[in-house]
């Protein structure tokens, strides 16, 4: 299945047009606006051949981070970018890192939208073209006319990571 992205849509996603190792399919109209909702009260992990173990939402969607700055005061992906990269929102503003995933889990406030999951200090997202079990956003690159580019990667966890971790509030 081809990845369907709109060049103009990604303009809000750090810039101009997306690129990837393989050509993306293009459509002449914009994707519908995305309204973030709380997607995670837990995360899961699953083995993917050639990728090791990947972190997913409880619905099975792969979780991605980009190589932009960790813990930015402002999200790098805002506006129309969130129609392509959906922020993973969580129901806890201050959760306890389970310490069993091999990555650091936290949250970062997302103004007007609640709390966004962060992995190693980077905001977590799912990719619009993925279905449960897919990794179509891995190595996807977004760029801007200013020359900045961001590479998106699925979050890899150690082979021994638990299959599911339920978030708990910090006491």
Describe what you observe in this structure.
The structure is a single chain. This protein is mostly beta strands and 171 residues long. Strands 4, 9, 10, 11 and 12 form a five-stranded mixed sheet that branches. The chain has a four-stranded antiparallel sheet with strand order 2-14-15-7, with no helix packed on it. A four-stranded antiparallel sheet has the order 16-6-5-17, with no helix packed on it. The protein has one domain. The relative contact order is 0.27. Helices cover 0% and strands 36% of the residues. It comes from Actinopolymorpha cephalotaxi.
Features:
single chain; mainly beta; four-stranded antiparallel β-sheet; 171 residues; disordered N terminus; Lipoprotein with Yx(FWY)xxD motif; lipoprotein
Q: From N to C, what is the helix and strand string? A: EEEEEEEEEEEEEEEEE
> What percent of residues are in strands?
35-45%
Tell me the span between the first and last alpha carbons: 45 Å
| Strand-pairing-aware structural class | mainly beta
Low-confidence stretches are 1-12, 14-29
Please, how many domains? 1
Number of helices: 0
Return Rg in Å: 15 Å
Report the sheet with the most strands, covering strand number, pairing sense and barrel closure. Answer: 5 strands, mixed
Mean pLDDT: 76
Coarse morphology:
globular
In which range does the helix fraction lie? under 10%
Overall number of strands? 17
Protein name: Lipoprotein with Yx(FWY)xxD motif
Keywords: Lipoprotein
């Amino acid at each position: 299945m081809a990845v369907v992205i709109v060049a103009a849509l990604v303009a809000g996603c750090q810039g101009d047009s997306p690129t990837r190792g393989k050509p993306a399919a293009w459509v002449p109209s914009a994707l519908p606006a995305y309204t973030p909702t709380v997607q995670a009260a837990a995360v899961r992990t699953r083995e993917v051949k050639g990728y090791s173990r990947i972190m997913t939402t409880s619905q099975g969607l792969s979780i991605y981070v980009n190589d932009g700055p960790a813990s930015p005061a402002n999200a790098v992906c805002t506006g129309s970018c969130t129609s392509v990269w959906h922020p993973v929102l969580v129901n806890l503003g201050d959760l306890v890192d389970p310490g069993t995933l091999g990555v650091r889990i936290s949250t970062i406030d997302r103004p007007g939208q609640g709390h966004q999951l962060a992995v190693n200090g980077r905001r977590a997202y799912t990719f619009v073209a993925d279905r449960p079990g897919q990794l179509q956003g891995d190595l996807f690159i977004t760029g801007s006319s200013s020359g900045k580019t961001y590479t998106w990667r699925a979050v890899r966890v150690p082979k021994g990571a638990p299959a599911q971790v339920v978030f708990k509030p910090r006491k």
